[in-house]
Amino acid sequence: MTALPTSLRERKKAKTRAAIREHAMRLFEEQGYAATTVDQIADAAEVSPSTFFRYFPAKEDVVLADDLDEVMVRVFLAQPAELAPLDAMMQAVRDIFTGMDPQVWAFERRRQDLIFGVPELRARAIQQMTETVDLFAGAIAQRQGLPADHFPARVMAGAAVGAILAIMPSGVGAQGVTPGDHSRMEQALTLLRDGLPLG
Amino acid sequence: MTALPTSLRERKKAKTRAAIREHAMRLFEEQGYAATTVDQIADAAEVSPSTFFRYFPAKEDVVLADDLDEVMVRVFLAQPAELAPLDAMMQAVRDIFTGMDPQVWAFERRRQDLIFGVPELRARAIQQMTETVDLFAGAIAQRQGLPADHFPARVMAGAAVGAILAIMPSGVGAQGVTPGDHSRMEQALTLLRDGLPLG
DNA sequence: CTTTCTTTTGGGAGTTACTGTCATTTCATG
DNA sequence: CATGAAATGACAGTAACTCCCAAAAGAAAG
């Protein structure tokens, strides 16, 4: 996941970060996000509140820290050049979901559950997605040898991210990403490619 | 815009609300969003901070209070039934932008500038858009006589909203929606309808 | 091992957005 | 004018941050 830590200092920092994160997630799941204070998290992780904010600039960032989106863009760019962009995207989705190790998967799932359950977090997650649109628009253009600000490339990126977002579970009792979801993503991208038939 | 106020009380409330809003927007534009405190706004509008929060549950809501999205859905549903969904959407965009009176337009523009300039506001605005996706998905399905949770309808709604969002100016020095923008929106929807050709 | 330098940590004080409560004022009504 | 309802303002309190400074812990050098 991350580069292997060398010095004692690095190892301690990684451990502290992980501890804060784990205790925070647990408390959020147990008592709810809003009802959990930063002080409680700090107490549980045995650090001072000051230290908490040194590791995570905001309470939200404990949950939102690293995003999957950049990985997605990288995998997308690694696809064979002969694939059409939307097909390359589908293949990238497939690659990511099949190659993910179970532990990462489980953690990802807990995160998704929290994010989609808490409006505050959902808002920021979606904002991250708009940054992903920029990344994707650039990536698509690059792949096809088009200028970086190519209009149709932007539209495609926006449509793809929007479509995927739209089929994410978000209502009451929603569950995060499940193993079956990557096939729904592929269906959505196929529809896009075919001009959005409604039949 | 709103129903005509009858009683003295109603009129006063409307005036107070407008005053808070106007002073807030002015201060945000002059000194920036974060640098403006609720107390300053309350002072300028000559109300107590308590009253401020009675009118707007959060500082953000002064800017985000009413959204254009619901209007969009209504106009979309009012389009002639023989238009294909994406064409109906295009026509709805056209109707709204041409029918908007200049004063509303000017205010809308100031709002857009603020929203797209302040990350915090942008995040919440985008969240509102996801709610719009739900509305649109339902509207599309309804128009075509499909079940409310029809998968391709959701994908279409998500793609359309995502595409439009993607071509909104958001970078540094970005300007809000300008009169020329509705044609860009139409271009985007046309691309969607045609299966997203990149040429 | 000790000294010195650097990084990390904890503590405290301060700001700001927001919540809840209660007395007072302001409008509506008979 | 009297009475009830709604709006307001002042107050106290909480929680998420921010800034700053002194103490602790790891790294490097003698």
Automatic annotation (TrEMBL), chains A, B:
Q: Which residues bind DNA?
A: 37-56
* Keyword Ubl conjugation in annotation: no
Entry keyword annotation includes DNA-binding: yes
InterPro entries membership = Homeodomain-like_sf, HTH-type_TetR-like_transc_reg, HTH_TetR, MftR_C
What are the record keywords, sorted?
A: DNA-binding, Transcription, Transcription regulation
Q: Where is the HTH tetR-type domain?
A: 14-74
- List, in alphabetical order, the Gene Ontology terms for molecular function in this entry: DNA-binding transcription factor activity; transcription cis-regulatory region binding
- State the Pfam families in the record: TetR_C_14, TetR_N
Q: Domain of life of the organism in this record?
A: Bacteria
The family database entries (PANTHER family) matched by this protein are listed as:
HTH-TYPE TRANSCRIPTIONAL REGULATOR BETI, HTH-TYPE TRANSCRIPTIONAL REGULATOR RUTR
Name this protein carries in UniProt: TetR family transcriptional regulator
